[in-house]
Specification:
This protein has 486 residues and is an alpha/beta fold.
Length: 486
């Protein structure tokens, strides 16, 4: 006998079909946001918890389900959903900053890094021998060195050595990958399926979703269309190959085919490096530029380390601090295929990128003068940024105090700069725009600007409460639920 859900909710037909289709296979379930992926996983877990004549087996004999979520904000939310659906069971939670579960449980909801930490304690509750299934919520995070992928490989290794006690794997996602382009998408999916030993993909059709009563929950959400064109002179969209971004830029430098702004940023960087090289030679040292390194953020990391090693207040420390700011600017130029000129200019303004100390050499002074003259002619105004601000103002006037907006960007530093700009723009301020930014927890914007878990959580709570009404975010924000209209 199998117990019934505590809340007496009933699965929609397409949800029940998905649960029935899982069987004993390792599967990825692709269902749109709001269609009930969590309920599907909860029902599968409920059915997997065996009953003896209506009474749960002895807890000492029963194995647990592991439900992984990619963000701390989701732990309590998914715990509540699972407990509400499954009913008579013990659902534990764990993430950084809270106490470790001490008693046995039927389901553990945890962030992946926190669970990896638990496994290192060698407590039997957290050994793979205590689990029968692992659910990866937002499974598209199984990539690179993400803790999801580390756990996936750990499960694979366990299963290879313990065929009679293997752990079933279930992945949930509305969008299976961040990749763009058919070849990249297929490659990402093959990688995820290999890492999780997936044998089947399950996804209800549009007809099944519709006939089952699913209605997309986007009635209060408006999506801004793209009213701007890619600026002339930048790397064309058809030629943008991410793995060749460094080579592409350096080739354009050699061929003198960059935009004037990109070339000027590069020349300022080289002029600062020249100043540092002169200082080093005067001391009998050598300076080696990191610009040949294809890992773009290694440039600013290098300048940051050298700044910290220099004597406080010395010309060398001043130069390395200045170089760090400009390495960041050049990295943004290269990463954006020379497109985000205004954001780069804003970064330089926010961080004194044009400040003169009076003792710079003529090459550096001339380079700073040239880029200042270009920018003062307002040639860098971004049609994209101006269009965004116009739209925000229009929607703010239309929606009043109920106005909320999320602006998605690709890079953490773009989120930081855009939020800072919106808060300083006179027109946006006049219309009551209050912006914040969210990036991955424990991440860094630059070596000198870091994001703490508390920063991200506070910003999200301020957005929920209305203290801020514009949230600039990378894709990490998709893991957070908002009980408000946007």
């Amino acid at each position: 006998m199998i117990g019934s859900p505590k809340m007496q909710l009933k699965l929609r037909e397409y949800q029940n079909d998905v649960v029935n289709a899982i069987g004993n296979e390792n599967v990825i379930i692709k269902m749109p946001t709001g269609s009930g992926k969590t309920f599907v996983a909860a029902e599968f877990i409920r059915r997997g918890m065996h009953y003896n004549e209506g009474t749960l087996e002895s807890k000492s004999r029963r194995k647990a389900a592991l439900f992984l979520v990619p963000a701390c904000d989701l732990v309590a939310q998914q715990k509540k959903a699972l407990k509400g659906w499954i009913g008579d069971c013990d659902v534990a939670e764990y993430m950084g900053g809270i106490s470790c579960p001490a008693a046995r449980f039927d389901v553990l909801v945890s962030t992946p890094q926190a669970f990896l930490t638990l496994q290192q304690t060698e407590v039997s509750l957290f050994a793979w021998s205590n689990y029968w299934v692992c659910v990866f919520d937002e499974v598209h995070h199984v990539l690179k060195q993400h803790p999801y992928r580390i756990i996936a490989h750990s499960i694979k290794e366990w299963n290879e050595q313990n065929h009679d006690r293997s752990i079933q794997t279930i992945g949930l996602s509305a969008s299976l990958t961040y990749a763009v382009g058919q070849r990249e998408v297929q490659s990402a999916l093959r990688s995820i399926c290999y890492d999780l030993s997936i044998t089947r993909m399950i996804s209800p059709s549009h007809e099944e979703l519709s006939s089952g009563g699913y209605i997309p929950n986007d009635g209060n959400i408006e999506t801004m269309q793209k009213p701007w064109q890619v600026p002339t002179g930048v790397v064309s969209e058809g030629e943008r190959k991410p793995h060749l971004v460094h080579e592409t830029f350096m080739e354009r430098i050699r061929n003198n085919s960059t935009t004037p702004f990109a070339l000027m940023v590069y020349e300022v960087v080289r002029a600062i490096e020249n100043e540092i090289d002169s200082e080093c030679k005067a001391r009998g040292d050598n300076f080696e530029s990191p610009l040949d390194n294809k890992k773009l953020n290694s440039w600013e990391d290098y300048a940051h380390r050298m700044k910290n090693d220099a004597v406080i207040g010395s010309p060398m420390q001043v130069l390395y601090q200045f170089l760090e700011v400009w390495y960041v600017a050049l990295r943004m130029v290269v990463q954006s295929w020379e497109e985000e000129q205004q954001l780069v200019w804003l970064w330089l303004n926010f961080h004194d990128g044009l400040h003169r100390h009076g003792w710079y050499g003529p090459r550096l002074d001339d380079s700073l003068d040239s880029i200042s003259r270009l920018c003062n002619r307002k040639e860098l105004e971004s049609e994209k940024l101006e269009s965004l601000k116009r739209t925000l103002v229009e929607k703010r006037k239309l929606k009043g105090n109920s106005f909320r907006c999320i602006v998605f960007v690709k890079q953490r530093i773009a989120a930081y700069i855009l939020a800072k700009h919106l808060n300083s723009d006179a027109t946006c301020k006049d219309f009551g725009m209050r912006a914040g930014f969210v990036a991955a927890r424990k991440s860094k914007i630059t070596p000198s600007i870091k994001v703490t878990p508390g920063d991200a959580s506070r910003c999200i709570e301020q957005f929920r409460s209305g203290d801020i009404n514009v949230l600039v975010a990378t894709a990490v924000i998709e893991e957070v639920s908002f009980a408000t209209s946007i």
